[in-house]
Design a protein that fits this description.
Mntp/YtaF, globular, transport, transmembrane, 186 residues, mainly alpha, 7 helices
Length: 186
Protein backbone atom coordinates (compact mmCIF):
# COMPACT_ATOMS: atom_id res chain seq x y z
CA UNK A 1 0.00 0.00 0.00
CA UNK A 2 1.15 3.52 -0.60
CA UNK A 3 0.75 7.02 0.78
CA UNK A 4 -2.36 7.76 -1.31
CA UNK A 5 -4.06 4.60 -0.01
CA UNK A 6 -3.23 5.47 3.61
CA UNK A 7 -4.49 9.02 3.11
CA UNK A 8 -7.75 7.75 1.62
CA UNK A 9 -8.20 5.33 4.50
CA UNK A 10 -7.43 8.14 6.97
CA UNK A 11 -9.96 10.40 5.26
CA UNK A 12 -12.57 7.65 5.22
CA UNK A 13 -12.05 6.88 8.89
CA UNK A 14 -12.02 10.55 9.92
CA UNK A 15 -15.52 11.29 8.62
CA UNK A 16 -17.14 9.92 11.79
CA UNK A 17 -14.90 12.17 13.88
CA UNK A 18 -15.57 15.08 11.54
CA UNK A 19 -19.32 14.61 11.87
CA UNK A 20 -19.04 14.44 15.68
CA UNK A 21 -16.86 17.56 15.63
CA UNK A 22 -19.32 19.44 13.48
CA UNK A 23 -21.99 18.59 16.06
CA UNK A 24 -19.73 19.91 18.81
CA UNK A 25 -19.28 23.15 16.87
CA UNK A 26 -23.01 23.41 16.27
CA UNK A 27 -23.78 22.81 19.94
CA UNK A 28 -21.18 25.17 21.39
CA UNK A 29 -21.08 28.31 19.28
CA UNK A 30 -18.44 29.74 21.62
CA UNK A 31 -15.94 26.92 21.03
CA UNK A 32 -12.40 28.27 20.67
CA UNK A 33 -9.21 26.83 19.18
CA UNK A 34 -7.72 25.95 22.59
CA UNK A 35 -10.95 24.24 23.64
CA UNK A 36 -11.08 22.24 20.41
CA UNK A 37 -7.53 20.84 20.70
CA UNK A 38 -8.21 18.31 23.53
CA UNK A 39 -11.36 17.05 21.81
CA UNK A 40 -9.60 16.65 18.44
CA UNK A 41 -6.57 15.06 20.13
CA UNK A 42 -8.74 12.49 21.88
CA UNK A 43 -10.60 11.61 18.68
CA UNK A 44 -7.30 11.31 16.77
CA UNK A 45 -5.57 9.33 19.52
CA UNK A 46 -8.28 6.68 19.67
CA UNK A 47 -8.50 6.62 15.87
CA UNK A 48 -4.75 5.83 15.87
CA UNK A 49 -4.73 3.34 18.78
CA UNK A 50 -7.60 1.14 17.60
CA UNK A 51 -5.89 0.08 14.33
CA UNK A 52 -2.87 -1.02 16.37
CA UNK A 53 -5.09 -3.20 18.56
CA UNK A 54 -6.77 -4.63 15.46
CA UNK A 55 -3.39 -5.15 13.77
CA UNK A 56 -2.08 -7.23 16.67
CA UNK A 57 -5.22 -9.35 16.61
CA UNK A 58 -5.05 -9.72 12.82
CA UNK A 59 -1.35 -10.62 12.86
CA UNK A 60 -1.96 -13.27 15.50
CA UNK A 61 -4.66 -15.13 13.61
CA UNK A 62 -3.33 -14.39 10.09
CA UNK A 63 -1.93 -17.89 9.51
CA UNK A 64 -5.29 -19.44 10.31
CA UNK A 65 -7.21 -17.45 7.70
CA UNK A 66 -4.64 -16.35 5.10
CA UNK A 67 -6.57 -17.96 2.23
CA UNK A 68 -9.64 -15.77 2.88
CA UNK A 69 -8.11 -12.66 4.48
CA UNK A 70 -8.89 -10.46 1.47
CA UNK A 71 -12.57 -11.49 1.64
CA UNK A 72 -12.66 -10.72 5.37
CA UNK A 73 -11.06 -7.31 4.81
CA UNK A 74 -13.53 -6.55 2.01
CA UNK A 75 -16.57 -7.67 4.01
CA UNK A 76 -15.55 -5.75 7.15
CA UNK A 77 -14.74 -2.54 5.28
CA UNK A 78 -17.93 -2.85 3.20
CA UNK A 79 -20.05 -3.35 6.32
CA UNK A 80 -18.55 -0.26 7.96
CA UNK A 81 -18.83 1.75 4.75
CA UNK A 82 -22.45 0.76 4.20
CA UNK A 83 -23.25 1.53 7.85
CA UNK A 84 -21.77 5.00 7.41
CA UNK A 85 -23.76 5.52 4.19
CA UNK A 86 -26.98 4.45 5.92
CA UNK A 87 -26.27 6.84 8.82
CA UNK A 88 -25.58 9.60 6.31
CA UNK A 89 -28.90 9.20 4.49
CA UNK A 90 -31.01 9.16 7.66
CA UNK A 91 -32.99 12.35 8.10
CA UNK A 92 -31.53 14.94 10.43
CA UNK A 93 -32.61 14.33 14.00
CA UNK A 94 -33.12 16.94 16.63
CA UNK A 95 -29.77 18.03 18.00
CA UNK A 96 -29.54 17.31 21.69
CA UNK A 97 -27.97 19.78 24.05
CA UNK A 98 -24.75 18.29 25.37
CA UNK A 99 -21.42 19.52 26.70
CA UNK A 100 -18.61 18.50 24.32
CA UNK A 101 -16.06 19.54 26.95
CA UNK A 102 -17.10 16.75 29.31
CA UNK A 103 -14.25 14.21 29.61
CA UNK A 104 -16.69 11.32 29.82
CA UNK A 105 -18.46 12.43 26.63
CA UNK A 106 -15.19 13.04 24.76
CA UNK A 107 -13.92 9.56 25.65
CA UNK A 108 -17.24 7.97 24.68
CA UNK A 109 -17.25 9.76 21.34
CA UNK A 110 -13.60 8.84 20.77
CA UNK A 111 -14.28 5.14 21.30
CA UNK A 112 -17.51 5.17 19.30
CA UNK A 113 -15.93 6.84 16.28
CA UNK A 114 -12.90 4.52 16.35
CA UNK A 115 -14.54 1.09 16.13
CA UNK A 116 -14.18 1.12 12.35
CA UNK A 117 -10.46 1.88 12.76
CA UNK A 118 -10.15 -1.34 14.79
CA UNK A 119 -11.50 -3.27 11.81
CA UNK A 120 -9.10 -1.49 9.44
CA UNK A 121 -6.21 -2.47 11.74
CA UNK A 122 -7.48 -6.04 11.74
CA UNK A 123 -7.38 -5.97 7.93
CA UNK A 124 -3.82 -4.60 8.00
CA UNK A 125 -2.82 -7.42 10.33
CA UNK A 126 -4.35 -10.03 8.01
CA UNK A 127 -2.36 -8.61 5.10
CA UNK A 128 0.82 -8.21 7.21
CA UNK A 129 1.08 -4.49 6.46
CA UNK A 130 3.42 -2.58 8.80
CA UNK A 131 1.21 -0.46 11.05
CA UNK A 132 3.29 2.57 12.13
CA UNK A 133 3.06 4.65 8.95
CA UNK A 134 -0.71 4.20 8.43
CA UNK A 135 -1.42 4.93 12.11
CA UNK A 136 0.48 8.22 11.99
CA UNK A 137 -1.42 9.25 8.86
CA UNK A 138 -4.80 8.15 10.25
CA UNK A 139 -4.20 10.06 13.50
CA UNK A 140 -3.00 13.22 11.75
CA UNK A 141 -5.86 13.25 9.26
CA UNK A 142 -8.40 12.68 12.04
CA UNK A 143 -6.93 15.49 14.15
CA UNK A 144 -7.11 17.94 11.25
CA UNK A 145 -10.63 16.83 10.28
CA UNK A 146 -11.80 17.11 13.90
CA UNK A 147 -10.35 20.59 14.34
CA UNK A 148 -11.92 21.78 11.11
CA UNK A 149 -15.24 20.22 12.04
CA UNK A 150 -15.39 21.94 15.43
CA UNK A 151 -14.01 25.29 14.41
CA UNK A 152 -16.27 25.62 11.40
CA UNK A 153 -19.20 23.51 12.64
CA UNK A 154 -21.22 26.52 13.61
CA UNK A 155 -21.01 27.74 10.01
CA UNK A 156 -21.69 24.41 8.30
CA UNK A 157 -25.29 23.30 7.93
CA UNK A 158 -26.01 20.06 9.81
CA UNK A 159 -26.90 18.27 6.57
CA UNK A 160 -23.26 18.49 5.40
CA UNK A 161 -22.20 16.22 8.26
CA UNK A 162 -24.53 13.59 6.80
CA UNK A 163 -22.98 14.07 3.38
CA UNK A 164 -19.50 13.58 4.85
CA UNK A 165 -20.62 10.27 6.40
CA UNK A 166 -21.84 9.12 2.98
CA UNK A 167 -18.54 10.08 1.34
CA UNK A 168 -16.56 8.34 4.11
CA UNK A 169 -18.65 5.20 3.65
CA UNK A 170 -18.05 5.23 -0.09
CA UNK A 171 -14.29 5.61 0.44
CA UNK A 172 -14.11 2.72 2.94
CA UNK A 173 -16.24 0.44 0.76
CA UNK A 174 -14.07 1.35 -2.22
CA UNK A 175 -10.90 0.52 -0.28
CA UNK A 176 -12.36 -2.87 0.61
CA UNK A 177 -13.16 -3.49 -3.05
CA UNK A 178 -9.62 -2.45 -4.03
CA UNK A 179 -8.15 -4.97 -1.57
CA UNK A 180 -10.39 -7.72 -2.91
CA UNK A 181 -9.54 -6.98 -6.55
CA UNK A 182 -5.80 -6.83 -5.83
CA UNK A 183 -5.84 -10.24 -4.12
CA UNK A 184 -8.07 -11.96 -6.63
CA UNK A 185 -6.59 -10.72 -9.92
CA UNK A 186 -3.13 -9.28 -9.26
Amino acid sequence: MDLITYLLIGIGLSFDSFAVSVSCGLMKQEIRFKQAIPIAFSLALFQAIFPVIGWFAGSTIQNLISSVDHWIAFILLAIIGIKMIVEGVKPNGTLQNFNPFSIRLVLSLSVATSIDALVVGLSFGFMEIPILYPVIIIGAVTFIASMLGMLFGKKIPAKCSHQSLILGGIILTGMGLKILIEHLWF
